[in-house]
Amino acid sequence: MPLASALDIQPGERIRWQLLGRDELRLVRLEAPSPEKGLKK
């Protein structure tokens, strides 16, 4: 789970990867994090 931690992905959070080009990926969060969870900094 080190990659998920580095990308600040919480357990159960739904995401998908969007391929932008041969060498570029974008992480797309399907649901915004809820305010009570907040973002870790």
Short summary:
By secondary structure, this protein is mainly beta. The chain contains 1 helix and 2 strands; from the N terminus they run H-E-E.
Jot down its keywords.
globular, about 40 residues, about 10% helix, two-stranded antiparallel sheet, mainly beta
C-alpha termini separation? 17 Å
What is the topology, as strand order, of the major beta sheet? 1-2
Task: Give the strand content.
Answer: 25-35%
Average predicted confidence as pLDDT: 83
Return residue spans where pLDDT drops below 50 for at least 5 consecutive residues.
none
Rg (C-alpha, Å): 12 Å
Count structural domains: 1
Largest sheet: 2 strands, antiparallel
Q: Structural class, from helix and strand content?
A: mainly beta
The amount of helix comes to 10-25%
Number of helices: 1
Which geometry do the CA atoms define? globular
Beta-strand segment tally: 2
State the order of secondary-structure elements, H for helix, E for strand: HEE
What does the oligomeric state look like here? single chain
